[in-house]
Amino acid sequence: MPDTSFVTIPPERRRSTQLFRSAGVRFAALYALLFGASALALALFIWWATAGLLDRQTDAAIRADAQGLAERWDEGGVVALIATIKDRLAENVDDNAIYLLTDAALHPLAGNLSHWPASFGLDQDWDELPIERAGVHALARVHRFDVQGGFHLLVGRDVQVRAQLRTLLTDALLWAGGVVVVLGTAGALVVRGLFRHTLATVSLTAAAISAGDLTRRIALTGRGDEFDRLAETINDMLDRIARLMDGVREVSNAIAHDLRTPITRARTRLEDAATHARSDEDLRAAIERATVDLDGVVSVFQALLRIAEIEAGARRSAFAPFDLAPVLADLAELYAAAAEEAGMRLEVATPPTLPISGDRELIQQAVANLLDNAIKFSPAGGRILLSGEMGAIMRVTVTDEGPGIPEADRPRAAERFFRGEMARHTPGSGLGLSLVQAVALLHGGSLELSNAEPGLVAELRLAAT
Amino acid sequence: MRILVVEDDKDVAGFVVKGLREAGHVVEHAENGRDGLFLAASEAFDAIILDRMLPGGVDGLGLLQTLRAQDNTVPVLFLSAMAQVDDRVRGLKAGGDDYLTKPFAFSELLARVEALDRRRRGDGPTTKLVVADLELDLLSRAVRRAGQKIDLQPREFRLLEFLMRHAGQVVTRTMLLEGVWDYHFDPQTNVIDVHVSRLRQKVDKPFPAALIHTVRNAGYILRHDPA
Fold first, then answer.
1. Dist. CA A99–CA A88, nearest whole Å
2. Chain A within 8 Å of B155 (Cβ-Cβ)?
3. How confident is the model at residue A18 (pLDDT cuts 50, 70, 90)?
């Protein structure tokens, strides 16, 4: 038994809703609808401007004619009217005027119709009816007037030509309607096709990326239109994702390599102690050393997470304006004692104030890392200079007299876990400069390393505002 | 001290409870947030060690907020694996007095918990700290030992003040870095040791008995050992 708790949609209904769930079909339908509506509006206008205009002109001519006849009646009675009708018929070059004057019994007195049209009742004012005139069948637009003395007057125009024109126009519009349907459908199909085609490239790329191929990008048409701009935005996003993924991969590899060593060491110590320790003291010492190793692993993890946190930009909420000068002075004071202990001199040079907007805690840690490095690598008797300088950007530099970083290593020095030849035998995780760089980037700046001959100039650049 | 440990991890809880009892404290343990809140609200403790992520529907932050809403001012130390800077800030904002991230060294936890003890720290403003023959006057910022004036740099003064305020308690390097310098990161160089050793040169060296002692694997303690 299928699960009856769900409402099942009949297949044909589902197909139709699925059909309209397609945006391509919706756009196509909308296109066809708009196209059809505009064609209809156009046809109505053409009708009004041609056939309708002729109709209105005919009616106006009949009215004017009748007006003239009425004036004649007023002047000379029925005799004058008859004479006028005759004159007018004689003058009618187009041979399209129709007059008929009858007495009360509908006997013709004057005009070019042989008798009162049978279908035209005496209660009607206007009509369009077939007439027979000089043996020719025609269509006439007629208007009836009652004249004093029981006379009836019929004024009209032969509209046979106009009727033919109207038929012609109707035919033409009907054909045009057919063409509209064909063109509308074709256009709709083209719109749907275009839509599907454009989306298909995006969709195919996205599918390929979902399947794991991060190198794929959406092809641009080069037209610089909205679709191109959308594609560019998506491609930019994909580039950023790819860079982040590379970073993650790099870091995972580095973690695998660099953390394996201390973990292996701790494990070996513990296992060795478990099997070979001869006294409680041996055991305790081994455990303590293993704990120190594990603490090292933990601190590497914490540094990595910190860097990741900074790179994710999550700390930007902690930005606030503060004065960097006393912060640098405090750091110098903290490290000066350690530097002196190691036989170095730590000097600080800053202007009285260095206003900046940023994350104070992170900048402190970044500068502390630079000072850590300087003390670690400088020889005894060396001088370390911490300076702050305010220009278009804020520059915090730490200059030491150590071995520096070889030109070839400099571009990679801020990579996670990178350790130069000189650093291989000093304690450290290879994450210090990575953090400094992450902090610099978070503050819209950079970390620049250069040679002080001898020594290293590490310049932390921060956007001033 | 009477301490409540709210921690769901059995190993961590067992380790902490055992360690605190060995250090001479009375310890209660709750395995989830609900029990923890019940105990904290119904009994008087000198300090609470609180995990952030707890089973039982009430997490550490919620527990603390409920306690604070009831005007319960018991000192609380968060012990959490949530190590991001914002996590720490959130914990302290919710009313926590200290924040220690996992994994941790027990000595660090013990030192920090003991530092929370308000009865030993004494309430109310003090103007003078005295340990044995060492006197520190907070108003005139003068330091004397055995009646002899000792000249200290401002930072050395604050370092000594911190040690004296926690006299008889172990103070770790991180606690000094946070309490005296207000830094929340681990410097790789042993900068703190150098500063403490300089302070010793002035405070201890000229006198027969040392007051500042190093505690192995933990930190420092300022204490008078009557010989």
1. 9
2. yes
3. low
Query: Beta B26-30 vs B2-6: how paired, if at all?
Result: parallel
Residue with tokens 């009217």: A81
Q: What is the DSSP string of A431-452?
A: -HHHHHHHHHHHTT-EEEEEE-
The structure's pTM equals: 0.64
- Note whether A337 contacts B191, CB cutoff 8 Å: yes
Q: Which fold has domain B2-120?
A: Rossmann fold (3.40.50)
| Separation of alpha carbons A146 and A148, rounded Å | 7
pLDDT per position as a tens digit, A238-260: 888 888 888 788 778 777 777 88
Q: Do the Cβ atoms of B189 and A338 come within 8 Å?
A: yes
Under an 8 A CB cutoff, do A376 and B189 touch?
yes
- Per residue in A318-372, pLDDT (tens digit) is 788 999 999 999 999 999 999 998 899 999 999 999 999 998 888 999 999 999 9
Q: What region, left, alpha or beta, does residue A95 occupy, with left being phi > 0 and alpha being psi -120 to 50 degrees?
A: left
Work out the average pLDDT over B57-72: 91
CA distance B13 to A177: 85
Instruction: Assess if CATH 1.10.10.10 describes domain B125-222.
Output: yes
Q: In whole angstroms, what is the distance from residue A385 CA to residue A400 CA?
A: 7
When scoring A304, A341, A346, A433 by the number of chain B Cβ atoms within 10 A, the one with the most, hence best to mutate, is A341
Is A337 in Cβ contact with B198 (below 8 Å)?
A: yes
Q: What percent of chain B has pLDDT over 70?
A: 96
Domain ranges within chain B, ordered by starting residue: 2-120, 125-222
